[in-house]
Write a structure and sequence with these properties.
Blueprint (H helix, E strand, L loop, with lengths): L7 E11 L2 E7 L13 E4 L2 E7 L4 E6 L1 H6 L10 E6 L18 E11 L2 E7 L13 E4 L2 E9 L2 E6 L1 H6 L10 E6 L1 H11 L13 H6 L5
Antiparallel strand pairs: 1-2, 1-6, 2-5, 3-4, 3-6, 4-5, 7-8, 7-12, 8-11, 9-10, 9-12, 10-11
Length: 219
């Protein structure tokens, strides 16, 4: 699990094709690795990867065909900048929101415009993810926990403050950029509970739309 608070910007220093999947060597820059061991998880642009080796300047990770098909990692090349976050511990401040590192799909930057010292982005999500995105709700983009400003179908708006622009790769985004999206965990599990038997769940939970509305969870 992760928080969506980016700890450092890394850089791809080696991109190696390996029989249909890839191996990445990532220079971790300012990210401290003293407490990282082979087998530990590090999120790279929001994708949970396993460190298989620690050569001294960063870590090496394998990326499966499944991850390549569902994320933007296949588009990385030598010199690409990436967001990095180590897995959270019980003492980690939860400054963002709970993030699994399992990408739900890829979005596309439609528009970028300046707004004082911030920038505003319009992002298009896959249609099947639109129902999980709500105004003032949380979404994770390339591993960064962000608040949704407004929603219009599968298109949503974000306001990116100067600190986030400085500490993440979001400042590199331009119209047409592909980004990894992970929707809010609570929204996904809430849908699963509401669907119940329609999703093959035969155990009664007692949770329904009327129950949620009566207890203030739905308006």
């Amino acid at each position: 699990m992760f928080t969506g608070i980016i700890q450092a910007i890394g850089q791809i220093v080696r991109y190696e094709q390996r029989g249909g999947d890839i191996r990445l060597h990532i220079n971790t820059g300012a990210l401290e690795l003293d407490d990282v061991q082979p087998g530990d998880s590090i999120a790279v642009n929001g994708v949970c990867l396993t460190a298989v080796a620690l050569p001294g300047d960063g870590f090496i990770a394998d990326v499966s065909r499944e991850s390549l098909s569902l994320t933007s990692l296949g588009g990385l090349r030598f010199g690409s900048r990436v967001n990095l976050e180590k897995a959270l511990t019980l003492s980690t401040p939860l400054g963002g929101h709970l993030v699994s590192g399992h990408v739900d799909g890829m979005g596309r930057i439609l528009e970028r415009k300046e707004d004082a010292r911030s920038i505003r982005l319009r992002v298009e999500a896959p249609a099947e993810l639109a129902r999980y995105i709500a105004p003032k709700g949380s979404i994770c983009i390339d591993g960064t926990s962000l608040t949704v400003n407004r929603v219009d179908g599968a298109i949503f708006g974000l306001n990116i403050v100067p600190h986030t622009l400085q500490k993440t790769i979001i400042g590199d985004y331009q119209p047409g950029s592909s980004v990894n999206l992970e929707v809010d965990l609570i929204a996904r599990y809430l849908e699963r509970l509401l669907l119940g038997e329609k999703q093959g769940c035969t155990t009664a939970t007692g949770i329904s739309r009327s129950f949620l509305a009566e207890n203030g969870f739905l308006k």
